[in-house]
Design goal:
The structure is a single chain. By secondary structure, the chain is an alpha/beta fold. The chain contains 14 helices and 14 strands. Helix 1 crosses helix 14, helix 2 packs across helix 3 and helix 10 crosses helix 13.
């Protein structure tokens, strides 16, 4: 099958969306499918307001249409609702090519944080974007239910995975974090307002708080919280070693649709503390025993009081935590992706027939 993936999020961005698309594309291509990526590096770009490191394609419509015409895909997967995503959507509709889409980012919530407007202002645009999609891929069951309640049709599950060769419980702790006052409370991700890091950093706790990542709020938070260790972005072995040095992984975001960093931490044997919101509830569960509350041991804790969640998470059995985290597979994620696209393609053929 010839697959074109249109995305406004791509390297050098460091986030779960890019990792998911990149990893999935490589696995799907290794299975014999012809996969092409349409990404911002193929167009003229400008910096996204408030995110200078994120580049948005400028008027990509004409060049993107030419590229799609040459690729002649059987199906298009549209990963994001940005300029490239909208342009790919328009081409598919005008040429009768089926497409799937993904709801990676809670854009209405992100936009609300940045504008002060209600998220309800932005949901109609999201519904309009995804309405013609043959399948709207979502990372968790709770997000599927929410989107259905908001009028989204054809939702399908597309879970996430990790590199189990990299993120594992026997990794040596990062030397620079090994001798810090315990407990070491770690957060990993973009240092941006929507990640709600201030809630974590202002929570009164013992030990040392460590933030791994880069973003527009980095210098501001460094000045406000001089006692916190900010390492900047880490990758590969260094990132795995940072997880290994932690006693608890703290995930304060209330807007993420999944939170890939949580399962990376879990696979390293680090329990998760978070708020009881979609994402953490789908991974850690309301009682800290997984989303179905059927795990034999706690793997973390969620609570409206983040300090309480941290205290509860510290009691978790790291062996059980690692076992649960390593169950998330990119191969399974790729299976779901291919199944969704094959189903969408078959449905489109039946409609034509």
């Amino acid at each position: 099958m010839r697959i074109a993936i249109a995305t406004d999020a791509w390297h050098p961005q460091v986030n779960g969306v890019v990792r998911t698309i990149d990893t999935t594309a490589r696995i799907v291509a290794s299975r014999g499918h012809d996969v092409a990526i349409l990404s911002p590096d193929q167009f003229r770009t400008i910096a996204c307001p408030g995110y200078s490191e994120i580049r948005l394609a400028i008027a990509p419509r004409i060049r993107l249409r030419k590229r799609l015409h040459v690729l002649n895909p059987d199906i298009v997967h549209i990963a994001t609702e940005g300029p490239i995503g909208w342009s790919a959507r328009g081409w598919c509709l005008s040429h009768g090519i089926p497409f799937t889409s993904a709801f990676h980012t809670r854009f209405p919530d992100y936009a609300a944080v940045r504008t002060g407007l209600s998220p309800d202002v932005f949901w109609p645009t999201m519904r309009r974007f995804h309405a013609p999609s043959q399948a709207v891929l979502t990372s968790t069951a709770s997000l599927m239910d929410e989107l259905k309640a908001r009028g989204f049709a054809n939702t399908r599950l597309w879970s996430r995975g990790i590199d189990t060769a990299l993120f594992r419980p026997d990794v040596h702790p990062l030397a620079s974090l090994s001798n810090l006052p315990r407990p070491v409370l770690l957060s990993v991700g973009r240092v941006a307002v929507e990640k709600n890091l201030e809630s974590f950093l202002s929570t009164e706790t013992c030990g040392t708080k460590v933030v791994v990542g880069d973003g527009p709020m980095l210098e501001t938070l460094r000045r406000r919280f001089p006692e916190v260790i900010f390492t900047g972005a880490l990758f590969g072995d260094a990132l795995a070693s940072a997880y290994a040095a932690a006693d608890v992984f703290v995930f304060p975001s209330k807007t993420d649709t999944f939170g890939l960093v949580m399962i990376e931490a879990l696979a390293c044997g680090v329990p998760v503390a978070a708020y009881p919101v979609p994402g953490p509830l789908d991974i850690v569960g309301g009682e800290g025993r997984g989303p179905r509350n059927d795990l034999p041991s706690h793997i973390g804790a969620v609570d409206h009081d983040l300090r309480r969640a941290i205290e509860l998470a510290m009691r978790a059995d790291r062996t059980a935590v690692a076992s649960y985290g390593r169950a998330f597979s990119w191969e399974t994620s790729a299976d779901q992706f291919v199944d969704a696209l094959m189903g969408a393609f078959s449905t489109a053929l039946d409609c034509v027939a």
